[in-house]
């Protein structure tokens, strides 16, 4: 069994900018957290939330609308439940080999017949550990609270006299008259706090999963599911369900605003992977910074390198999923390094001589035609084939316009408004619009209408819709649209065409980027190269 040494203690952060950590716990773990928290209260602002599962999700969601949190710490089944339901980074409290040996020794002093009850994600190597030491211990895994009760009842019926396990398992054991020993130790809690502090520093500059840079509280939150009854969206959901359990890389393609990151998050949530979901936009960071962000660096690797070095996002995603958005923007030298990560399952920090083994699944997204970049020599052919082991293509909204009413209803419900705020003519116009910005454009339009048209005012008429959404005036329908800028392009248009399109867009670069199906970063680079 692999026993991990304690993590090195990170230097104390600036007292004026302490990271915010929320701990989520119930039962015995609450007391253990209370013992350890004072050791870290000078390095972080720690807020205990003594709830679990659905109640914890509801409370955290409400608090995030008005408060900031960098990372959440939770343990066992609580952590597994929260992981796919929160956008805040989550660090699980994980029992290591020392914890297991100590807990078993304490249990042996209570009674000879021991049962080990853990969540499905805990103690994955127990069977080999048990075989190596010749232990006669019954091990049960659970997923739901009902599973945990059933496991305890089964062990009790088979003569087990003491239970080692998570807080939930011990609660059920004591309710059935069996003594319990908590699997976690103070050291495992300390390691979770060290990991949380390290992650806040690793992700601080990218802001990938922090709530520090969240928009105002009433913004529309990211949908938790891919909505749509159309055959195209049903096929996408089927692909996600089929690909999620596998470790193969997935390439997600689609125009801007179609939901590529949402697909990546759902792949991760359904994968069963224990690690975190870490995302980075390859087109939003300069090459020199991107290398350090992705792969990390050692102390003294370059001028200005932080003392002690830095963990990269590849390492931060160990055991989880790394989402590389706009993969077509990844510079060629870094493509080579990424290929090594995929092939060798190890990462070499900048300035290091020894690689670090990582277990990370990569999901990449592109709104460009990567095949064209491969042919042009701008993207490595071997990396393309490695990334495209599995592929998911998201349809533009105009290709499944029958889902527009469902999406509108969903977005209005998110905002607390009734689901039928549009009259028939207004809804018909929205269904016939070409949606160059896809679902993101529709979501933002609903937010705009919510501000202008309160639910108490009755159904929104077409005349007022056109007043607040002038882009719908004379807009081409999906069937009528032959504008080449409504289809994603794979390379920079010629200078005269680009300037003409920009003029047609009234100088609005964001609107032009949406029409071209490229990111604002890519459009900015094209415009900068006009001279």
How would you sum up this structure in a few lines?
With 531 residues, the protein is of the alpha/beta class. It contains 22 helices and 15 strands.
Question: Topology of this protein?
Answer:
Elements: E1 20-24, H1 28-36, E2 45-49, H2 53-64, E3 71-75, H3 76-83, E4 90-93, H4 97-110, E5 114-119, H5 126-133, E6 137-142, H6 145-157, E7 162-165, H7 167-175, E8 180-182, H8 186-202, H9 231-243, E9 250-253, H10 260-269, E10 277-281, H11 287-295, H12 313-316, E11 321-325, H13 332-344, E12 346-347, E13 356-357, E14 361-366, H14 370-375, H15 381-387, E15 390-393, H16 404-414, H17 424-432, H18 438-452, H19 462-468, H20 495-504, H21 509-516, H22 520-528
Main β-sheet, spatial strand arrangement = 10-11-14-9-15
Classify the helix fraction into a percent range.
40-55%
- Mean pLDDT score, rounded? 78
Judging from the principal axes of the Cα atoms, what is the shape?
globular
CATH architecture title of the largest domain = 3-Layer(aba) Sandwich
The secondary structure category is alpha/beta
CATH superfamily of the largest domain: P-loop containing nucleotide triphosphate hydrolases
Number of domains: 5
State the separation between the terminal residues, measured CA to CA: 61 Å
Largest sheet: 5 strands, parallel
